[in-house]
Design brief:
Length: 172
């Protein structure tokens, strides 16, 4: 027996533009961030990704937020000690109380400004009421550019798949 999902949630809150919550964060890789090979540890990159995404989600929700899930992360290029790491985050989709935030990370060459892709990830955050710490409604996303609209649609599809996979798991 398949579970039917209710009609899509319609918020009473006024929508917020994607641009209003974008974040760019820059870090330098220090020896304390590195593995024995002299490259930044994956866990440190994941830490920066989570912080960057949390700031974007918090800007959108205007409440405290918590990380609910992180999709698969594939590291495609190492970053050596002394390297500059740039992370960008934006809210791609907002549901009733949750938001998907996309983060892309690059290594930036100090001399040329060229960037190499390091990692991308999608994280889901839940907005919390600051007093009760219970989930709180968030404003819908207003996607304005063609890229924002594409990312919104792709995020909605990923959300539908997450829900489908979650509901298919046996309980107990």
């Amino acid at each position: 027996m398949s579970k039917k999902h209710p009609k899509p949630f319609v918020s009473s809150l006024r929508g917020r533009a994607v641009a209003d919550s974008k974040v760019e964060m820059t870090e330098i890789v220090f020896p304390t961030d590195a593995n024995p090979l002299g490259n930044v540890m994956g866990g440190r990159i994941m830490h920066w990704v989570d912080i960057c995404a949390a700031v974007a989600a918090g800007r959108h929700a205007r409440t405290p937020v918590v990380t609910a899930s992180v999709d698969k992360i594939d590291f495609v290029n190492p970053v050596p000690v002394g390297g500059v790491v740039v992370a960008r985050a934006s809210v791609n989709f907002a549901g009733r109380t949750s938001m998907e935030v996309g983060v892309k990370v690059w290594q930036e060459d100090r001399a040329t400004g060229e960037r190499k892709h390091v990692v991308s990830a999608y994280l889901t955050f839940v907005s919390l009421d600051p007093d009760t710490r219970k989930p709180r409604e968030v404003a819908p996303i207003v996607a304005k550019t063609a890229d924002e609209k594409r990312r919104y649609q792709e995020a909605r599809e990923r959300r539908d798949l997450r829900i489908k996979l979650r509901d298919a798991k046996p309980r107990g």
